[in-house]
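Hi there, hope your week has been kind to you so far. For a while now I've been wondering how a particular protein folds. I'm sending you its amino acid sequence along with the backbone structure tokens. Could you read through the record and tell me how the tokens relate to the sequence? Take your time with it, there's no hurry, and the full record follows here.
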Amino acid sequence: MDQMLENMRHFKESAASGQFTVSASAGEDLLRVIRMLQDWLGADQCGTLDQRPLLGGSYGAVAMAPFVQQIASDQQGFLTQMTRLRDVLTDAESGVKQAMANYRHNEQAVAGTFSK
């Protein structure tokens, strides 16, 4: 996830420096998907994963319950990665919006050369 976060920051920086553009229709499609993921993450779909699971009273269940909980919420756990994904999506949204603005700017600049 760290690599994905770094890549998305580069994506955002590339868009900010005008290195690429995205058309309005393509950008809106990308933003719709990004926002769907953000909504899903914001809906606390994973909220129960940080609780100790009820696996029963056997020795195996008692031994596994804290381990399962730890896997969900430790530094490399699923919940931690979902939090990082929110950051990735925020950078992605920002980059797409900037790339759409770059596209509009380029279109206006090109259209201006034809009106002379």
